[in-house]
Specification:
Length: 91
């Protein structure tokens, strides 16, 4: 999967600035989350994607069906109904 590691820190920007230069902030959001403020209070967040893979990974990480499937798989493994990677024979 694509990497979702972002640089440390979050940048806060007033909505009026984002509206004036959205393309610039989209580029910045590829590496750093940008909190958009309205009247000095957080109102939203801008998250950019460097690639199609980043966009795909974001969608997976936020898809309730995918998250439920992962949870079911983890529960299955915890209850002993799984196969360890080490036990799979190499062909």
């Amino acid at each position: 999967m694509a990497r979702t590691i972002r640089k440390a820190g979050v940048k806060e920007v007033p909505l009026s600035e984002v509206k004036d230069d959205l393309s610039r902030y989209l580029r910045e959001a590829e590496t750093q989350e940008i909190v958009i403020t309205r009247h000095g209070k957080p109102a939203g967040i801008l998250i950019g994607f460097e690639s199609e893979e980043d966009w795909f990974e974001y969608r997976l990480e936020n898809d309730p069906r995918f998250l439920q499937r992962i949870e079911r798989a983890r529960n299955s493994l915890q209850s002993g109904r799984g196969v360890r990677l080490e036990d799979i024979e190499q062909e």
